[in-house]
Amino acid sequence: xxxxxxxxxxxxxxxxxxxxxxxxxxxxxxxxxxxxxxxxxxxxxxxxxxxxxxxxxxxxxxxxxxxxxxxxxxxxxxxxxxxxxxxxxxxxxxxxxxxxxxxxxxxxxxxxxxxxxxxxxxxxxxxxxxxxxxxxxxxxxxxxxxxxxxxxxxxxxxxxxxxxxxxxxxxxxxxxxxxxxxxxxxxxxxxxxxxxxxxxxxxxxxxxxxxxxxxxxxxxxxxxxxxxxxxxxxxxxxxxxxxxxxxxxxxxxxxxxxxxxxxxxxxxxxxxxxxxxxxxxxxxxxxxxxxxxxxxxxxxxxxxxxxxxxxxxxxxxxxxxxxxxxxxxxxxxxxxxxxxxxxx
Length: 344
What we know:
Layout: H1 3-8, E1 43-47, H2 52-64, E2 71-74, H3 102-109, E3 121-124, E4 129-132, H4 135-144, H5 163-178, H6 180-185, H7 190-211, H8 224-234, H9 236-240, H10 255-265, H11 276-286, H12 340-343
Parallel strand pairs: 1-2
Antiparallel strand pairs: 1-3, 3-4
Helix pairs in contact: 2-4, 2-8, 5-7, 5-8, 8-10
Protein name: Glutathione S-transferase C-terminal domain-containing protein
InterPro entries: Glutathione-S-Trfase_C-like (IPR010987), Glutathione-S-Trfase_C_sf (IPR036282), Glutathione_S-Trfase (IPR040079), Glutathione_S-Trfase_N (IPR004045), GST_Omega-like_C (IPR047047), GST_Omega/GSH (IPR016639), Thioredoxin-like_sf (IPR036249)
Pfam family, one: GST_C_2
């Protein structure tokens, strides 16, 4: 193991990459059955803009208008093998939790916590203890348990009549796409990589067929399913195509998925959570066993995310009977996508 591997951790595994999906399953609910009732101001969402799993929570929090009820702590784009850190904050300490590492909140509740320190995580501010890092459940609970604190006009991201279909699509997208790109990037053998590559692009072809005749993945409005796919698509050309060797086609060379991704990116609540600089820094600087030099590429062109997509011709209403979220508060704004002239 090189010195950089020791600092950052090692990600490539022998053979096929297998994700640890054992998360802290404690839930924050209206009835508080796990000991954590929904309360405005009690909890802090800790995320990182670089991470696709955390990015989901940033989007749903924005769309539902939970900013006033649930504060946000942001880790920087890099971390070492121990923990995500609050190096974006003055003194490298989260101003609400008073800790330099997210690991501190995990160990406050589980002194012998045996797994990786992951984002997103929700921390109970009074105790400083992590409540949950179960990212798949967190966003669903935002929709179903935090209803009292939704903004007027919040969309229905997990409508009851569509839940079975959303769950089915989410399951497919998670295994074949969200995790599929990691299965390619962290493959430890040619055989494992080849199999992962084929699975990924079969799934992207399936999504292309599905989205060629409908604007959104399930129903005629944005749902949880679109949020989960979008965070992978947003990272595809800047990271996964080259860094993870998912290189049959760039996203920009898959017309249906490219139009779909730009449609969402240009929808309030999606693109305004994306920080391409942090995304590239995270993957290329942290995964030193894949990118030993830590060099971060200048490309690709990002201004094309703002080009017309023409998806409205398929119908659909992005927010259903709801309304778009207001602009992000100043403290949560991301850098704008650079124009062509700025990238030259």
